[in-house]
Amino acid sequence: MEYKYIDNKIIMSTFNSFDIEQILECGQCFRFEKLLEKHYQIIAHNRVLYIKQDISGKNEIEFYPCSKEDFENIWIDYFDLKRDYLKIKEILYANDIVMRDAIDFAPGIRILNQQPFETLISFIISQNNRIPQIKRVIKNISEKYGARIKDTDCFAFPTLSQLLRADIDGLMECRSGFRAKYIMDAVQKLNDESVNINAELSTYDLKRSLMQIKGVGTKVADCVLLFGFGRYEYFPTDVWVKRIMQHFYFNNVETPIADIHEFAFKRYGELAGFAQQYLFHYARQFPDTFLQ
DNA sequence: GCCCAGGTATAAA
DNA sequence: TTTATACATGGG
Predict the structure, then answer these.
(1) Rounded-to-integer distance, Cα A235 and Cα A232, Å
(2) A129 Cβ within 7 A of any nucleic strand C atom
(3) Mean pLDDT of chain A
(4) Whole-angstrom Cα distance, residue A235 to residue A230?
(5) Are A121 and A186 in contact (CB under 8 A)?
């Protein structure tokens, strides 16, 4: 990975496994807006960042406005730029025909390292919901309870102490629906420390803690662990396989892979969920690779 | 109007 | 332990 800093902008040479469209549109994060083809605005870490990936063959990605310090201290980690996805994909490619097609379909996906609290609330909102609506609710909550980001019209996602000022009615006004009570439960339990989700905990304990929050089940917990805590090593893969099989195929065991395959590739979001499942699966089989 | 959304809590079998 | 249903909201 090579990059240079010019005029409050980072210009990075494109390298394997970085496609900003695939990264953002695959269902792992919600605070982004598409401006043009492979040109996005994201809000994270109290900052508004624009990412423009060259589509004319120059193999460059621009991040702006961005200081050298922010790039090195925040965005390298956020975009997981130090992990060797090429190596991971080689192993997946050699060992699974479905992951092979998933990689061919979207070779540029990376798993973002997002902020835990925001990730938790976001995936509580995600349940029984669609991405445009999830994005809308998160934006509403940010504008109502979060702080304005300096020199912009954008609002950061509220901190825990900022969300303590929220109530059910206020969250309903943000169109969060029946999830408002779950958000309140999360905020209260984290605040009075009846639930502890600090990064020191083992993945197992972290998952148990997360699931003490109302509205956090297996799916939400696993997404928070993966996207918010960078944990992928001990997931109950068999549960995921069963859930997927039950959800889409019930008891049809004749050609499940082909059917899953067809469904999974219809949209990025479905691919992402599917890829998550397989990442869990392979992460467990090849922990050394995933743990760098 | 009716159906549904990569979910979860709850009640009931 | 497993299975059916409600849930707020908005879009097809």
Answers:
(1) 6
(2) yes
(3) 83
(4) 12
(5) yes
Question: A85-114: per-residue pLDDT in tens?
Answer: 888 788 777 876 656 766 777 788 888 999
Q: Is the C-beta of residue A41 closer than 7 Å to nucleic acid chain C?
A: no
Phi-psi region for residue A7, left (φ > 0), alpha (ψ -120 to 50) or beta? left
Identify the sign of the CA torsion A194, A218, A182, A113: positive
Q: Taking a C-beta distance cutoff of 8 angstroms, is the pair A108, A18 a contact?
A: yes
Rounded to 5 degrees, what are φ and ψ at A51?
-125, 125
Measured distance CA(A211)–CA(A228) in Å, rounded = 15
| Environment class of A115 (CB within 10 Å of its CB; exposed 0-12, middle 13-18, buried 19+) | middle
Answer for A175: CB within 7 Å of strand C: yes
Are A162 and A146 within 8 A, CB to CB? yes
CA of A7 to C1' of C6 (A): 55
Q: Is A219 a catalytic residue?
A: yes
pTM of the model: 0.88
| Average pLDDT score over residue span A259-276 | 48
Q: Nucleotides of chain B within 7 Å of a protein C-beta?
A: 5-10
At A276, the pLDDT band (50, 70, 90 cuts) reads low
pLDDT digits (tens, 9 = 90+) for A51-96: 999 999 888 999 999 999 999 999 999 999 998 888 878 877 787 6
